[in-house]
Amino acid sequence: MSDAYCTDCKKETELVVDHSAGDTLCSECGLVLESHSIDETSEWRTFANESSNADPNRVGGPTNPLLADSALTTVIAKTNGSSGDFLSNSLGRWQNRNANPERGLIQAFKTIATMSDRLGLVGTIKDRANEIFKRLEDQKSTRGRNQDALLAACLYISCRQEDKPRTIKEICSVANGATKKEMGRAKDFIVKTLGLETGHSVEMGAIHAGDFMKRFCSNLGMSHQAVRAAEEAVKKSEEFDIRRSPISIAAVVIYIITQLSDDKKPLKDIAIATGVAEGTIRNSYKDLHPHLQKIIPSWYAKEEDLKNLSSP
Question: How many whole angstroms from its chain centre is CA 257?
C-alpha cells in the first residue's frame, strides 16, 4: 500500500490496489481513484498440462543477436506417455515438418553453453564462442566436419582471446567425445577459415604459465602461501630461456613448490591436476633445475633446501 491524496476524504490516505480489476481504491472511503491500470511487471501465469510434470511459464526467452528469429519461435512440448493429447502430438509433427532453419545453430549454442557451464567459464567466453561458430556457419564451412570438435575448438579459441585460456585436455573433457587430435585439426581449420574471411591472421592471445597457476593450485588444495610462491616463481621463470610449454612449466613449478613445503604432493596427483604427463614433468624439471635459486622466492625456501631437493 502507498499514500496519496483522496479527493473525497480531502486528506492523505492509504491506497489499496486491486490487481485483478486494475483499480486503485481509497482505504478510507472506497473511492476508485484510478481504474484499468496496467501492470508492467513480469507475467508469470503458467499454462502447465496437469497430466505432466512440465510447468512452462508464459514468458519469452532472452533475445540472441546471432539468431534472426530469436525468442520468436514456438516449441510444442511432447506429452508424457503413449496416451498423450492428440492435438499436441499433431501440432508437434507439423512443427517438425516446418522445422526452424536455425535449429542446428540453436543446438550448437546449447552445446557451447553446456560445455561452458561444466568448465565454469564466464558468459563473455561463451558469447564469443557462439560468434565464432556463427561466422563459420554463415560461410557454410561446418558441413561434413566433426561438429563436436568444431564447437570445442570455438570454445578453446574464445578462451584464448578472452585471456582465460584452458588446456586442450580440459576442453576435450567436456567435448562429447572429441579427441585432442580432432580438436587440434578443427582449431587449425577455424583459424585458417576466419583468416581468409578477414584477410589477416586470427589473434589467439599469448599463453603464459601464470594463466593456469591459480586453477591448478586450487585443484591440488595448496595453501595460500604455496600458491603465492608458485605464482612468483612462474613469473620469474619467464626471464630464462626454458624451452617448454607454459603448461609444463606450471606443472613443474607446482611440483617444486610442493616438495619444498610440509604438504608434499605426489607426482601422480600433479600430473592429473595439470593434465601434464609424469615424464614431461620430469624432463621439464631437468631444464628448470639450473635456475632454481633465481626462480624460487628466497622467503619461501633457503638455498640449502633447494640443494636437498630430489628430482621427480
Answer: 30
